[in-house]
Amino acid sequence: MFVGVAEVSAQKDSIYIEARLSSDKKMLDVSEELVYHNHSGKDLQTVKLLNWVSAYNRRGTSLVYRKLEDRNTNLHFAEPHELGKLISLQVKNADQEIPVHEISDENLLLPLKEALAPGEKIKLQLHYQIQLPDRKFTGYGTSDTQVALKYFFIVPDHFDPDNISPRKYVDIEESVNFNTFWTVNFDLPVNYFIESNLQQTQMNSFKGYLDSDPEFLISQNEYPSIKVSTDGMNTEIKFGYNLKPEEKQNLEFYLPLQLKFIKEKTGLVPEMLFITEKFRSKEDFFGNNDISFWKFRFKLFTDAEKADLDYFGIITKKILDESIITDKQDNHWFKNGLKSYLEIQYLKKFYPDTKLLGALPESQIFGIKPLKLFHASNVKLTERYGLAYQYIMSQNLDQKIDEKYAVLSNFNDMAISHFETGTLFSYAADKMGYENFDYLVQDFISKNTDKQIDPRDFLKELAEKDKRNTYLQDFIQHKNRVNFKLKRFKKEGDSLNIKISKNTPDEIPVKLQTETRDGVKKEYWIDTAGEDKTKTVSIPALDVYKITLNDDYIFPEANYRDNFLYAKGLFSNMRKIKLKLIKDIPNPEFNEIYVNPRIRFSNTYDKFLIGFNFKNQSLFDQKFLYSVTPTYSTGTGKLVGSGAVAYSFLPAESMIRSLTFGISGSQFHYDYDLAYKKASIYSNISFRKNPRSTVSRGVSISYNYFERDLNAEMILRNDYDRYNLWSLGYGYSDNQSIHEKSLSVNTQLMKDFNKVTAEGFYRWEFAPRQKLSVRLFAGYFIKNNTRNNTFNYGISRVSDYSFSYNLLGQSATGGILSQQYVLADGGFKSLIPGTVNKWITSVNVDTSVWKIFHIYADAGVYQNSNRPTQFIWDSGVKVRVISDFLEIYFPVQSSLGFEPGFKDYARRIRYTLILNLSSIINAARRGWY
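Above: the chain sequence. Below: its structure as tokens.
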């Protein structure tokens, strides 16, 4: 079976494989010989082998859970024939069989008869059969047209030489078997071809050293390749997919330029690269795709530019992956950061003035260029790296650079691991000189060839080369909120004395730039002392018009809004004010005020509201926010509106993610010619969360003051015209894909009542797009001396005394407006009369039946003061037009009887209508953050 297996150099493992693929491409029969060395410093009693095909074999594996975090339920709901698993396994050493107790485990621990001493080796013979998973889950496995093999062969974990730490497959493209000599021979069905990142020695046979894991693509098609000569060295780039003629022509032009650039920066020129479709989609250039809207298509970049931008990142990352050995879980940031650093330098050289939106701002609509009104149209492509960090940091959802890769959110993988690290490398290179930085990178890679590296050693060498980079070693271990600030300047003679402050004891240099009205720029690097938080520097005044710190987002600062000052004019020593119409990427150079025309339908009383909204909130979150919206009510002919001011504290490393204090006020109508006024003071605490997690927790407290106009009948009833409400609540939610759940507890009090409510919600997706939901509600009045039922619990209708449910007909007692349904209080869909002034418990159940049709059932028990306990129930059919936003309820049977038999049945049909765009956006964002 293993005739001709060659011994390789000492201390390097070797793997020899004979693999036969079944005719239906679903089974792989493998005979394998593994020469394994003890790379640890102690005797080994067991050998750990990775059996990662078992990650596909059942629900509950780490792979399934990670896919659910990304809101991908395909593997969770997979059919048995779509799963991957190890069907059989036999392991021998010198003809003696080694027992394997559980072949479904991802980590196989093989007991050794005799301890394996450090440096010694052992030969293991394995024979196993694999059922390949469907390729749709991870891009690896089998499909109708292709078989992609990676991570399916049983191999050692070279990043765990002691064989003590479990390592699970979670589809993050991590290398686990490096510095290994591979010999792989395939027996394939007729008319199938195979490509690999290993050198092919003959048909279906591959051999050679790899510092990454082998991958193979089996298909009935032969895919293209491009051969490139770079400074006398030849490189063949193989593709695991078809190239369009124009794309191939573009690559034949750009690939030589890209490889030459990469060689100059890193010294690396590979003999062969193999690019799979999965790798291309993961490593291409984010944000350069065309924008499609209805029948319109807007191009940001030409096809040639897209090919250049995409493949520079793809080729760069592939070369780094094949040349640098790091444990991705712990040191993902090193190769990702180098990739972004090289991208930044490539853009600076070949796309220095290209805009983030490409040619899109030049697109005309009716002869005008509307995007020119946006600051986004002026943002340079090179600024995207700093902007991505600013966006996620402003929400306090960023993570430290050296965070474990498996717990990075999808966005932080890009914004932190790639972009922030690349920005720091570029900043260091700018300060110490790009040639010096590039030489350091080349030397570090060269002397660590075929070795596992610790990137912190690179940071140490960087600090030794230039001590001003010493801060990086600590910087990557924290969520940082470094901020440089231009305090003020003073002109003395021919000099400008500029005062700069910082909020960190780290000795981080800062780049100061001056600009004249004619656009002439001068740059100065300012070194900062450790404990000295302020520094005054003197520079020639010349004809300086504007002063800037770290322009173009070249350093990951917490706040760029205080990095600009004007040296002349009305706004000398301060920032200018700018009015804008539509939300935009913030321009930190200005105090921006967004003035937005507003037309929206409020309710049947105010009808359409027409007015303007004045606010300072851009596309990025800010700590201080204000919003004022005066509007004209077309229903009443009066002025109404709302306003709010809030400030949030966002501690970087704390159990609290945000602490917000705010005040707000509003005035609208709740009935015909009856207005209400509401004023609130509130505070919210949002607790820290793992950005990959779907769990959120928070506490809120508020004081609310209400004034209501009363009509004559309400005055006779001695209704409430003024009242105060205190509210304290805790909320927990987990919006994961399969098991969605939430819990809230709240207490409200005023002089006449005090009540406590609790609500639990659970939604189970038991089949693709088929869900069962259960809601539990309980409410109890600790004290109730109210004059009427205004503050009572509702059974089928909510009493919106806090004006927080956006009802279309707040006071409607009949007609279609009164049929609006809100899932609150008792939550009954049938129009069961009455309210509750003592206590109520209810359960609301809803389940999918077929497509958009559901059935529901509600049941509850309640008691009013001096009345016996009542049991009520209802059931019916729900039509889900848009889940959670537009739903229609048709009652069938309830405590009231068989409702379709009632003459007024049409009036008993209920509907849910939520006109809240932010709720829809938040639902769409799940899985990305």
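Residues 1-7 have pLDDT under 50 and may be disordered.
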